[in-house]
C-alpha cells in the first residue's frame, strides 16, 4: 500500500470522465449500501468503484462538528459526508449495482436507515484501529434485517490482525463474509463487493430451496 491513508479525504481517481449509459441488455438493478463509522473510507470506496462520476455531498468540517465527532486517527480529514455518496457499477450485461454511501456519524443514523429501503444488502467498512465503532452500524443493520458483509479497509498505520481474530472481536456469524480491502484500489474494492454479492445470491438461493421444500 502507498503512504496516503485509505480514508474519505483522499481524492479518488475518476473512473470515467463523462456520462456512461447503461447497456440496453441490463435487466436487473440492485441497491447496495456502503456503511461504516465516521472516516472509515466510504466516500473513497464508492469513488474507486463507480463507473460514472460519483455524486458526493461533502462539506468542510467545522469546530462545532469536532465537539460531537470522534476525530481520533483522522487528523488529516477536513470534509465529511452529510447526505450520501452515489455511484454505479455494471457487473455484467444484465446486472447493475447502485452504490449508496452513508454518513458515518451517529447523528445521521436516521437518514441512512431511510436509505435501507429497497436495498439488497450492505457492505460494512471497518477500521481495525477502531473496531468498537462498527458495532452500532452492524446493530442497526441487524435490527432492520438487512444482510451484510464486512470489509476491513486496511489503513497504512493500522495494526495487522488475523481474520479469525477480527471475526471473533466483531462477533460475526460464521456465514457473514469478512474480507480485507484497500478502499483506494478499484480491484481490491471490487473483490470486497463481489464477496457481498455472492453472499446475497447464496442467501436468495437458500431461501428459494427452503420454500420449495415446504411446498
TrEMBL record:
<comment type="similarity">
    <text>Belongs to the GPN-loop GTPase family.</text>
</comment>
<keyword id="KW-0342">GTP-binding</keyword>
<dbReference type="GO" id="GO:0005525">
    <property type="term" value="F:GTP binding"/>
</dbReference>
<dbReference type="InterPro" id="IPR052705">
    <property type="entry name" value="Gliding_Motility_GTPase"/>
</dbReference>
<protein>
    <submittedName>
        <fullName>ATP/GTP-binding protein</fullName>
    </submittedName>
</protein>
<keyword id="KW-0378">Hydrolase</keyword>
<dbReference type="InterPro" id="IPR027417">
    <property type="entry name" value="P-loop_NTPase"/>
</dbReference>
<dbReference type="Pfam" id="PF03029">
    <property type="entry name" value="ATP_bind_1"/>
</dbReference>
<dbReference type="GO" id="GO:0016787">
    <property type="term" value="F:hydrolase activity"/>
</dbReference>
<dbReference type="InterPro" id="IPR004130">
    <property type="entry name" value="Gpn"/>
</dbReference>
<keyword id="KW-0547">Nucleotide-binding</keyword>
Amino acid at each position: 500500500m502507498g503512504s496516503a491513508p485509505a480514508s474519505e479525504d483522499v481524492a479518488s481517481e475518476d473512473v470515467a470522465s463523462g456520462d456512461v449509459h447503461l447497456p440496453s441488455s441490463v435487466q436487473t438493478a440492485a441497491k447496495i449500501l456502503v456503511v461504516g463509522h465516521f472516516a472509515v473510507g466510504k466516500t473513497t470506496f464508492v469513488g474507486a468503484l463507480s463507473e460514472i462520476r460519483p455524486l458526493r455531498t461533502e462539506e468542510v468540517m467545522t469546530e462545532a462538528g469536532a465537539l460531537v465527532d470522534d476525530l481520533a486517527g483522522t487528523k488529516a480529514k477536513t470534509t465529511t459526508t452529510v447526505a450520501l455518496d452515489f455511484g454505479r457499477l455494471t457487473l455484467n450485461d444484465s446486472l447493475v449495482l447502485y452504490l449508496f454511501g452513508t454518513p458515518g456519524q451517529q447523528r445521521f443514523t436516521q437518514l441512512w436507515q431511510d436509505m435501507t429501503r429497497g436495498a439488497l444488502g450492505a457492505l460494512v467498512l471497518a477500521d481495525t484501529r477502531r473496531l468498537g465503532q462498527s458495532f452500532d452500524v452492524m446493530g442497526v443493520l441487524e435490527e432492520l434485517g438487512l444482510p451484510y458483509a464486512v470489509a476491513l479497509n486496511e489503513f497504512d498505520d493500522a495494526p495487522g490482525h488475523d481474520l479469525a481474530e477480527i471475526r471473533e472481536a466483531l462477533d460475526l456469524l460464521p456465514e457473514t463474509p469478512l474480507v480485507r480491502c484497500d478502499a483506494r484500489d478499484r480491484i481490491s474494492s471490487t473483490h470486497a463487493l463481489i464477496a457481498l454479492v455472492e453472499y446475497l445470491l447464496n442467501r436468495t438461493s437458500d431461501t428459494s430451496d427452503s420454500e420449495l421444500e415446504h411446498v
